[in-house]
Structure formats: C-alpha cells, structure tokens
Amino acid sequence: MPAFRTSIHARSLGAATVLTLVARAAQASTDPHGVDLLPILEGLVLILVGAKLGGALFARIGQSPVLGELLAGVLIGNLGLVGFHAFDGLRQDQGLEILAQIGVLFLLFEVGLHSNVQQMLAVGASSMIVAVLGVIAPMVLGYFCSAWFFPAHHVLTHWFVGATLCATSVGITARVLADLDRTTSTEGRIILGAAVIDDVLGLIVLAVVSGIIAAENAGRAFEPMQGLWILLKAVGFLVGAIVIGQWLAKGVFKAAGRLGSQGVLLGVALVLCFSMALLAGKVGLAPIVGAFAAGLILDEAHYQDLRARDKKRRDLAELLEPISAFLVPVFFVLMGMRVDLSVFGNVGVLGFAAVLTVAAVAGKQVCALGVLERGTDRFAVGLGMIPRGEVGLIFAGIGATLHIAGERVVDDAVFSAVVVMIALTTFMTPPLLVWRMGRTKPAG
Amino acid sequence: MPAFRTSIHARSLGAATVLTLVARAAQASTDPHGVDLLPILEGLVLILVGAKLGGALFARIGQSPVLGELLAGVLIGNLGLVGFHAFDGLRQDQGLEILAQIGVLFLLFEVGLHSNVQQMLAVGASSMIVAVLGVIAPMVLGYFCSAWFFPAHHVLTHWFVGATLCATSVGITARVLADLDRTTSTEGRIILGAAVIDDVLGLIVLAVVSGIIAAENAGRAFEPMQGLWILLKAVGFLVGAIVIGQWLAKGVFKAAGRLGSQGVLLGVALVLCFSMALLAGKVGLAPIVGAFAAGLILDEAHYQDLRARDKKRRDLAELLEPISAFLVPVFFVLMGMRVDLSVFGNVGVLGFAAVLTVAAVAGKQVCALGVLERGTDRFAVGLGMIPRGEVGLIFAGIGATLHIAGERVVDDAVFSAVVVMIALTTFMTPPLLVWRMGRTKPAG
Question: What sign results for the dihedral spanned by CA atoms A326, A331, A337, A341?
C-alpha cells in the first residue's frame, strides 16, 4: 500500500495541480498500485472485435479462424502507416502481453489435455527424428544462404543465421490443429511431440553457437559442459514431468476431493498447468512446454470424482473453453499487431528475406522423412513444422549483440530479414495446413 | 519487434556475458517484449492454492469463501514478518494486479447480469437515499473524530479525513451476496445501486474538498463548476449506459448473430463489458461501475438466438463462471496480500484507527434509515455498505500531497489509520453479512 504514497510527493500545490491530481485520481480509481487499466481495456475491446470479425470471416471462406485473427492484428497494428497513431502504444502494452502469454498457455494446456503420454510416446521415435531433422536441415540451408549472400562474413555468422531458422513456433500449428479437430491425429501428435523436442534442441543450439563464438573471441577452446548442463536440466524436466507428474496429479486430485467445494476441479487443473509452466520456465524451456506437459499427464480418470460433484458434470475441456475463448485470441491478434509492415518496404532486405523464408520452409519439409508410421501424411507433418516465432527473434537479437572478428554477427539487414521470414512462415501455415489436413477425414 | 533489439546493446562480449545472455534468453523464451511471465505464474500458483484452501476451509465453517481468500492473502503477503521474503515482490507485481482488476470486472459484470435495469430502478429511491446518507454520515463522524484527536489541525483537514470514510468498496459485498445467492434480493439491489451512486458522490466529494483546499491556499473563492462538470459526466454516463446501452445491446447481438460462428455470445458479452468499463473509466468512474452497468443492460432475451446456437445451449452466466473462478480469487487474495500487518504494530496510530473504524461502521449504519421498502432487512443494508477500499486509500494519498497553512492535510499517522480502517472494514463485512443474511430465506 505505501507504493501509492511515494508516487505523489509534491510539496505544495496550486489549484491547477490539484485539479490534475483529482483527474488523475479519478482515472486511477482502480489504480492505487500503478496499473492503468484503461489502455488494456481499449486493447481488449479492439482485439476481441477484430478477432471475432476476422475469425468469422475466414471461417466462412473455409480458412482457419486464426488467420483472420492474425490479419485483424496486422490491420490494427499498422494503422500508423496511414497516419492513425492512436493505437500505436497497444503493440507494446505489457498488460496485453501478459494476457496473451497466459492465453497461449491455455491453448497448449487444452491441446495437451486432448492427448496423453501413451499416445505421445507411441509416436515418440518419429517426433524425435522429425525434430532433429527439422533443426539440422534449416540450419545447414541457412548457413548456405548466408554464405551465398554475404561471402565476406565470418563462417560463424553463417551458422548463427542458420540457428535462427531452427525453432518451430508451435502456437500457430497447435491452434490450426485444434480448429480442425486434428490434435490427436498421428500427424498432430508427431508435430506436437517434435515441437517439444525442438524447444530443447533450440536451447542447446543457442548455447553451443553462442559459446563457440565467445570462445573464438576469447581465443580459447569451447567448453561443451554448459550445453550439456542445459540439456540435462531440460530432459530432466520432461522425464520428471511425465513420471512424477502423472503420479502426483492422481494424488493431488484425490486430496483436492476432500476439499468438497464447488470449482475444485478447475482450480486444481489451473494450479497444475501454471506450476508446470513455471517449472519449465525455470529450467530454461518455454512455459508453453510445461503447460502442454500438464495437459498430457492429466487424465479424465483422475478427476471423475470431482467431475461427478460439478452441478453440470462438466469435464475440464468444457470448463477451460470460455477462458480460452477470451484469452487465446489475444495472443494471435497481438502477434499480428507486432508484424511491422514497413519492414516489407525495405527493398534491400527483401531478397535475403525471401531466400531465408524458402530455406526455412524447405528445411522443415525434410522432417517428412522422419515419419516412421505408415499411412501418415508426411507432407502435413512438414507443413506443420513451418512456423517460426519468437525464439528465432531471440536468437537474432542475441546475434545482434555478438561480435566476431570486429563484425556484428547479426547486422540490421539480417535482423530485418529474420523478422520478415517469421511473419511469412506464420501466415502461410494456417492455409497450407487447412488445405492439406482439412479435407481428409479425422483419423482421431 | 525492435523493442527487443534496443534492450541489448553491449558492444563486445566476453564468454561470461554470453552465458548470461544465453541464460537470460532461455528465461526469456516467451519474452522478447519485456514481460517476465515466471513471477506471474509463481504468484498465480500461490494465489490459486491459497484461495482454494482458504475458501474451502471457511465455507466448511459456514463463512463466505471470500474471507478465506482474503486471509490466505494476508498469510502469503506477510511471510516477510517471519523472515521469509521470497514472495515480497508479488504484492506489487503488475501482472497480478492486472489480472486482479480484470477479475473484479468479471465479478461485477456477473452480479449485474443477475439483475436488470427495471429491478434496480424499482429500488432506485432507496438506493439514492442510502448512498447520500452513507456519504454524509461517515463524513460528519470522521470530521468529529479528527477534530477530537487533532484539535490543532486546520478545520479543512478534518473534512478531508471525513471524506476518506465516504466511499463504499462494493467488491467484497458483491462477492458475499453472490456467495449467498442474494444479489437480487431487495437488500442486495439497494446495496448495489447505492454503491454505484456512491462512486459518483465520492468523485464529487473529492473534487469539492480538494478544490476548496486549493482555493484556500491560493487565497481565492472555490470554483464549483469543476465539481459540476465531473457530476455531469458521471451522471451522463449512467443515464446514457442505461438508455442507449439497452437499445445498442439488442442491435449488437442481432448483428453478431449474422457472424454465425461458435463463441459469438461470449465474445459480444466481453466486448460490451470491457467497452462500458472503459467508458466509465474515461468519465472518471470506476471501471467496475461500467462492468456492472453492462451486466444490468444485458438481458437473456437479447441473446436467445445466439444461445440456441451454442452446442450446449449455455447461457452467459455459465460461460462466464470458469473465467470468474480463475480471475476473481486473484483480486481477493491480492487484496489480502496488500494488508501490511506491521501497520497494526504501530501502537501510536491504533487509537485513532479504532475510532476511525467505529466512525466508518457507525456512519454507514445510518444508511438503514434510507430504506423505503417495507419488510426489508435495513440492518443488512447498513452492514453491506461497511467495506471501504481503494477509493479511501486514493483520497488519503491525495491528502498526503496537499498542504494547508503549511501543514500536511493527511500526515503519516492519519494515513496509517486509514489503512488499518480499510483492512478492518474489509474483513468484518463477510462474517457480518453471512450472520445477518445467511440464515434468512432468499427473497430473490
């Protein structure tokens, strides 16, 4: 509570200042703790209207609603290009960002709920091969693209550019699979499993490439133990989550059953989801990996007792649906809002961006070779692995701070090209997946 | 997207720095836009566990679950007193604050949904008298308390102390009424209507008292137009919301019906709730007043078509329930966390705090006289008006910045006493209301 006191410390005030204070206090009537809710509400209204209109429009023309949400976001986020700047601040609004991040946790938690550990392990070998191929191939292709466009650059910078192409951003694919009701198809499970492994591999690639560059600069050999430690923590989390998590979830639901009040089922599920997302984040993985794992280990059998006590016998999927309907579009519209169309006006980088995008797409098509199950649509798996997201951006951002032989590892042109590549791969995936998976019968 | 680039601008980096960057990037894997999700997840886990345990415990002993949530918050928020400081940062976490603020919007929106404009207007005269009495009586009592304890202070400081006692904080009462299923009882409607009017009156009191102090300091007469303008905006919003809002809601639902996709009902309701909360905030009222008004004007008749299209024919109350179950406890646990128990150790202020609390409680009991409806439990109305909240804190905070005749209008001792008064009135209301309203039959 003292936070509010220290925020105002004028000594003596004139009438004008008092009226400003009154106006401020009026605005702040919900806000003695430094949060201004009004811009967030403004953003939510715009986002929800855009999401519903865009989603409905694209659903009507047989596309995934997520494409409509993304494009509504692009529209809202780029009104500045036609001179309308009232919404410019929303792109970077921290409140909306938090809601978006929580929204994507709910998406992956729900996707995880539809599947279970056994189903995922059944395609585990394929997921592993798909993930490994999907890291190696784009990395090699990215290396050659960079070497072709920038022959004067250091060889390690080429590898760094390759590294920005590695990590699949699973949010888009998970959402399209959910919209198509195909999360539990063989293709869907292989893609989701590969995306989890991908996140682990991405961490390692980043550690190794950055470590080699740092060692090179310091004139000494690379110390591989750091990469190994990161790997151990991440794998430890995943194995621990599956082995201990399943056993723990059963116990927690049993204990929670004794609480005997309404709403316990949703409460326990939220706690499991958030705590596993937190743990994943603590070991360096994306929190969405933790949320997905939480969904996987939760089994309807665990919570039959609690469900029976709900006055409408709702299962978790039903309870989570309204929360997702509120928060998931925030993630995708905000993602669209962050696409800065002016980058596409930078003709100088478009050539490299185009080549990088082709490398990004082609590299993930190699994944199709890793699918072991007969009768599976390998092409769909390759398409589902296409989207790149914030991890690529983080790689590029770190590359922008690294120097080798006096030259920046990722310069402005390369950074812009990565931004364009991320936008293009994000937007092409929903229509490609709908085209490929939408017409075949769900294999369940 | 460039935000991330500018956040790292080291020129050349050693191996140690690179590893720090890698670790940071790993932590930030969801976070190229400056939000660290992990503390928020940690807070959510603690809050939800505390809320469920505290709520279930208090429900079992026949109390309102909200009291358990508040006390769980006090426990979490004051672990620092026994030397455990790991959670100290959560009290001021902006992410949790945003979720809490959105949570209380959902609470008031739901409460509004249970009622409608006609039902509220039916008790409008009582609500108005209750609100006016509930502002005047505590203000006069507060004046005398201050004059008794601090005879040397300027007369205007006494009025300012009185003003901090005016505004009812409707969140607690709304929640207890909802828990008791009594939101639509005559008593419930009178209290909720009075709380809305109270918010308007509070704004005016603040403007007038601060304006008079500023005028006194400047040696000129107070200009009442400012207060009038604030009043006009607020009343204009409420009348406009009810008249235009009802007509608009019908049209919006009709138009939305043409969208023809799933999830439209919830989407439209959220947009209405958030836009009216935004408008309320823009005219200086609390956003929860807007959310409540949005709930009032929404009538089940408006959305029968949309509901019929839902695969489970869920109404809005059912769709909103899981969202509230997630977000509403965040508000109340965080409110508990912000109670700084160490203030109670400050023996010097406890005397004044006790007198102020008695004045706050006694002042609102006068409200009972304003109830016109026969057969209504007047005492319950008075009890429901007891809680003071953040508005009182805002008043006190502004008073702390104002000076009159060289003396601070609200000094540290008075500020601490206000904090104690808010905590006590917040905690005493749930058991008092449960005692008074819990045993009588719902009249709703």
Answer: negative
Place of tokens 């509120």: A326
- For residue range A97-146, list pLDDT tens digits in order: 999 999 999 999 998 998 888 888 889 899 999 999 999 999 999 999 99
Region of A284 please: left (phi>0), alpha (psi -120 to 50) or beta.
left
ipTM summary value: 0.86
Residues 250-309 of A with CB under 8 A from B: 256, 259-261, 263-264, 266-268, 270-271, 274-275, 277-278, 281-282, 284-288
pLDDT tens across A389-399, in order? 877 877 788 78
Q: Which of A31, A401, A404, A420 to mutate to test the interface with B (most CBs of B within 10 A)?
A: A401
Cβ distance of A14 and B217 shorter than 8 Å:
yes
Query: Closest approach of chain A CAs to the CA of B258, in angstroms?
Result: 10
Cα B130 from Cα B135, distance rounded (Å): 9
pLDDT in tens, A75-106: 999 998 888 888 888 888 999 999 999 999 99
